[in-house]
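Supplementary Text 2. Reproducibility record for the structural model of the 506-residue chain.

All settings were left at their defaults, and a single model was retained for analysis rather than an ensemble. We include the record here because the model underlies the residue-level annotations in Supplementary Table 4.
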Amino acid sequence: MCNVLLLVIGIQFIHRAQSSFVILNPTPAPSAIAEMARSSDSARAASCAPDERDGLTSYDKLLCRLYTTNLFNAKTEGLKTMETLHRALGSPMDASGARVVHIAGSNGKGSTAFKMARALKRSGYRVGLFSSPHISCFRERIQIDDVPCSEAIVEECLTKVFDLCDDRGIPATFFEVLTAAAFLIFAREKAEVVVLETGLGGRLDATNVIKKPALSVITSIGLEHTKILGDTIPKIALEKGGIIKEGCPVLVGNNVPVEVLRKCAKDRKASQFYECKDLLGKESGGECTQVDYDADNSRTATAALTLLQRNWASDGPERTISPQDVAAGVGMRPKCRFEEITCSVVNTDSSAKVRVILDVAHNPQAIEHLMAKVRAHYPSSRLRIVVGMSADKDLKECSKILLDNVPHPKFIHLVESPNPRCAPIASILEANPELDGCNHKESSVSLQVKEAMKLASVKDELLVVCGSFYIMADAREELGIKEPRDSRAIGDETAKIIQRRQGHSR
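Retained model, structure tokens:
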């Protein structure tokens, strides 16, 4: 049963809890958050009134269907299914004429995509951004000019994709349906540039049906998804390098096997192969990027934008990728990437303040970088860590790195999300028995964050919440962060669908 449940991708189950804290100075959120809330409210009022029988809107029901698409038969024949679906939709990513920046990598691809999209929007382009997974709201995955798309257009485009799959018998998977809907949205919204993050790997990823990217970017290579991508760095690099196209330029970041990818680019007949230093020169002084993914991501994004400015110089003065726009764009970062906030614990005798860092570092390479950056920024602080992990990660190595950064396992709080991709606490403890002395009796993200905050406030500790994307929505809500979230009813209904289908499959 567990293996079946792991096929579900990206479900955000919502656990509501009364927050015990008030947020004092969160990392400034983009102005798009307010617009996102307005968009969500207006869309629901206009076309997504809830069904009185189950409390689900038509939008909610479509997400339930998406999350359970091909639940028991999530197989695809390379890119064949996605290519069929894309053609059936009229090849929107080809017909729209949008320029595509295609980004793959083990770590940093989402942040690099985010930074590039922000800079390009400031430069006068209408920009679509496709990234995954989301933190709190499904529509975060598909954005136009920094604003998550409306529920109305998600409903319209998902319905079109599902109807087409039904009519023509196209056995698309979750990510293929999602990608196809995103392509439709970008075409309908007339995006001039689409920054496209791969889902997994590159060569066989659904996003790889695009034919002529303006630029392919590979941010970093680490050991991940080894059963799918290969069990060595070179093998994984070649899978990521599958996004390289004939006649198109490619840029690689710092933490990659350069010569492996250089040969891959040559074999695939790329027009040019660049390292960041080829466009920006050698790295100067300052914070060492070896302990700062954000610096790595910013440098990769800056190099990519520098190349685009060179190649798009004929677009005219109203669309100039200026150094100022590049600096402003790459200076931003997505939420839960070393996001620092200060909270006040109000349920104590004194109103103590606690510094909190939220970060979705979820594999050994990323956690190592996170801990190094925490130590660089807070060298004298004692840490308290709340962590939940995805089941497909190296649980032993991830937990070992965290244990090396606290004086005793009791400073670690293990949590798990109802999302079936999250590792059960029992699995984490089995992978690393040294965690036995940690806080793990209560698995709830909200309750563990609440307890960790109280302890950190009393003992003047720095609280780090890290690991799986799927624990972050509950953690952020418990910390008092106000932002749009999908309905809890979506998770509840999705769980019911899974249970019913499991019963029928026996």
